[in-house]
Specification:
The structure holds 2 protein chains of 2 kinds. In chain A, about 40% of the residues lie in helices and about 20% in strands. By secondary structure, chain A is an alpha/beta fold. Chain A has one domain: NAD(P)-binding Rossmann-like Domain (Rossmann fold), CATH 3.40.50. In chain A, helix 4 links the parallel strand 5 and strand 6. The termini of chain A are far apart. The mean pLDDT of chain A is about 95. Chain B is about 30% helix and about 25% strand. Chain B contains 7 helices and 11 strands. Chain B is elongated and about 60 Å long. The N and C termini of chain B lie far apart (about 45 Å). In chain B, strand 5, helix 5 and strand 6 form a beta-alpha-beta unit. In chain B, strands 3-2-1-4-5-6 form a 6-stranded parallel β-sheet, sandwiched between helices. In chain B, strands 7-8-11-9-10 form a 5-stranded antiparallel β-sheet. Classes of the chains: A alpha/beta, B alpha/beta.
Chain lengths: ~130, ~220
């Protein structure tokens, strides 16, 4: 699978590493070059500096050939915009974005985006652990 | 009408004041605490501190009864998010977004936000107009109609001097108003021959802007009609 990841925070870097280790073609983007240092030394994919809400940056990252696009910056609005560009402008088959705000997660789902709220997931997980 | 503005910088606060003076009910939402203090000093109770992309903040602002929603922050992703929520979640009848990067205009349109304002582009157009650098100045976009109103200044060095208006690459139904020194303004006459010093106000289709620009500066004069 050819995957583009936007946001090289802990989640983005870890996901890039996992997919790369499994043999997928991974391109990861971050507006801040320092964040790309989170990638492991043996990362075999492509790491680029740039803002993925910019369609030219996405084009350079090879979005036209991508099978999947993942937006995991810390900013909900950025993730939502980039994911919508990937889905609506570039017709990427699989698009997933992180939306912290549970209310907005629901809203973007209603627009047809695959949005995941770690806030909700984590709260539910903790509740399970507590056995409450 | 109740109008919500997201983004309280120069654009947002001036717009708020103006709409208020025109008798509208206005609320300006600003996320940055420092700018927010400034806003409260300036506008008083018609400002709200918070993130205008958050449902909870918008609900508190009473978005359900807003007649218009305008997002003018410096971030295009924020303006898009706020406007999409206003339009698609709360069905605000009229939604307008500022775009900071002109290439985002078509993206906003594709994502359901058709009414956008390219503020930097407008500033550049005004500077061009004041400076006389460009012969073609954009005056107004009629987005819904796909038309533009532009001002063409015919200076003596342009290759269109001595050509008729019909030689310009205009679409069918284009209209013009010719301003010539010492003459009454002349309504559209395709046969009129352009003279140095003329100013022509043109109503044309948006897609004809670039061919017209090329033609005016001589890049492809004499091509298609």
């Amino acid at each position: 699978m050819n995957v583009i990841i936007m946001g090289c925070g802990r989640v983005g870097a870890e996901l890039a590493h996992l997919l790369d280790a499994e043999g997928h073609k991974v391109t990861i983007l971050d507006a801040d070059a320092a964040n790309l240092e989170r990638l492991p030394a043996d990362f075999g994919g492509v790491a680029l500096t740039g803002d993925a809400t910019d369609e030219d940056v996405l084009r350079k990252a090879g979005i036209a050939e991508a099978d999947a696009f993942v937006a995991v910056t810390r900013d909900d609005d950025r993730n939502a915009m980039a994911a919508q560009i990937a889905k609506q402008i570039f017709d990427v088959p699989k698009v997933v974005c992180r939306i912290y705000d549970p209310l907005r997660e629901e809203f973007y789902k209603s627009l047809g985006l695959e949005a995941i709220s770690p806030t909700l997931l984590f709260a539910r997980l903790i509740r399970e652990k507590l056995g409450a | 009408m109740y109008i919500i503005i997201v983004g309280g910088d120069e654009v947002g606060s001036r717009l708020g004041k103006e709409l208020l003076a025109n008798g509208h009910e206005v609320l300006v939402i600003e996320r940055n605490a420092e700018r927010c203090d400034h806003l409260v000093n300036e506008l008083g109770s018609i400002s709200l501190c918070g993130d205008g992309c958050e449902m909870a903040v918008l609900t508190k602002a009473g978005i359900a009864r807003a007649g218009m929603f305008i997002a003018v922050t410096h971030e295009d992703d924020d303006n898009l998010a706020a406007c999409q929520i206003a339009k698609q979640k709360f069905n605000v009848p009229r939604v307008i977004a500022k775009v900071n990067s002109p290439k985002n205009e078509h993206i906003f349109a594709k994502l359901g936000i058709e009414h956008t304002v390219d503020v930097v582009g407008l500033v550049l157009e005004h500077i061009k107009e004041q400076s006389g650098i460009s012969p073609l100045v954009h005056l107004l976009s009629l987005r819904d109609e796909g038309m533009e109103i532009v001002l063409l200044r015919v200076t003596k060095d342009l290759p269109i001097v001595g050509k008729a208006i019909r030689d310009l690459p205009l679409n069918q139904g284009a209209s013009s108003l010719l301003l010539r020194q010492g003459c009454e303004p002349m309504v559209h006459n395709p046969a009129t021959v352009l003279e140095a010093g003329d100013q022509v106000i043109l109503l044309i289709r948006s897609k004809n802007i670039e061919p017209l620009r090329a033609s005016v500066t001589g890049a492809n004069l004499g091509g298609k009609q």
